[in-house]
Amino acid sequence: MLRFETAGESHGECLVATVSGLPAGIPISLEAIGRELWRRQQGYGRGGRMKIETDRAEIVAGVRHSHTIGSPVAILVRNKDWQNWTEALAVESAAVEADHRPVTRPRPGHADLAGAIKYNFPDARYILERASARETTARVAAGAVAKALLGQFGIEILSHVISIGDVCLDRHAEWPEIAALGRASSINLGCVDAAAEARMKEVVDEAYRTGDTVGGVFEVVAHGVPPGLGSHVAWDTRLDGRLAQAIVSIQAVKGVEVGFAAAGASSFGSKVQDTIHYDRAERRFTRGANRAGGIEGGITNGQDVVLRGLLKPISTLRKPLASVDLETREPALAAYERSDVCVVWAAGVVAEAMTALILAQAFLEKFGGDSLDETRRNFESYLKQVQDF
Ligand code: EPS
To answer: Does residue 133 have its Cβ closer than 6 Å to ligand 1?
Structure first.
C-alpha cells in the first residue's frame, strides 16, 4: 500500500515527507522534484515568504543511484526562514525571557482558535505553525515521486486557474494548452487565457490595495489514466471520494467538484451523461463528452480525470477582522502574520500532488509489483485484456 506523510512547521528547521510502498526501480530526479517545488512557489499574489525561500529537495532515504530501492523514500526541504526562528521555535526549552512570538488574537477562518482550544495551548503559535500552507511544500515533494511513477505509464497531471474572485475563465480549456502552461518555464497567474488572466490580476491587485485576500477555483487534469482505477464495490474504494478527500484536505480548500458537478446539478440527465459510442476501426469505446470528469461509479473510465478545487480567500488579512484576545477575553483585531494575498495557482499545484499520490495508490493497488518491471508486466497484461474486451 502506498502511504505518505509529512512533518514540519512553517518556520521550523525543515519540512519532511515520507512515501512508502513504492516499487523499486522508479527513476527519480532531484531536478524534477525541484521543478514541482518551484511551480508551487509561483502565482500572482504570493507574499514576502516566497522571496526568502528557494525550496530545494534533499532525499535522505529510499533512493540510490537515481532509482527507488523499495524502501521508504524520505525527503527534506529546509526552511531558510528558520534562522530567524531558532529561539521562538527551539526544540529544547528556550530562556523564559526569549521572544516566543505568541499569537493570542486568533484569525477568523484559520485553525488558530479551534486548534488552541483542542490542544490546550495559551497561544495559537503552535497551531498555526503546522496549519500553515507551508506544509504543502512537503506534499508537493511527495507528489513529485508519485508523478515519477505515473509518468512511467504515460500519466501526466497538471492544473490551471479557472477563476479568481468573481472573474471566471468562460470557456473550456483543452489538454494541450493546460500542458503547455504546466510545462512552462515562467508562470504568471496560471490561467490559459491571456485576456481572462489580465482581468483576474486586477482582482488580485484590488485585494492588495485594500488589505484583503481573494480565493478562486483551480482545475486539475490527469491525462492518460487507464480505465479501471478505484472500485464501485465499497464506499471507501470509490476513487472520486478518495480524490475529494485529498483535495479538500488542502489548506483553504472548502469544496471540490468531480467533472462538471455544479453545472450537472442544475441540468437534466439527458444533458449531463457522457454518451457511449464504439469506434470499430480502433476497436475501442469512445464518449460524447467528459462531464463526469473521467470517473463513473468510483472507477476511472479512461477519459481525463478532471477535478476542481474551490479555495476560500486565505484567512490572514492585512486589514484584520474582529477577534478576541485569548488572554484578556477583550475584543481585539485578529493577528497579522506575513502571508499571501492569492494562492489559487499554488493550491492547484498542491492538488496535482495530492491527485498524483491518490492515483499512484490506486494504480499500485491494481497493478502491484515490488519492482517497476513487475508493475509494468501487470499493467501491460491488463491493457491487453482491455483491448481484447
Ligand atoms: C506559505 C504559505 C503561507 C505563507 C507562508 C508560506 O502560509 P499560511 O497558510 O500560514 O498563510 O504565508 O509564509 C509564512 C508563514 C511567512 O512567514 O511568510 C507557503 O506556501 O510556503
So the answer is: yes
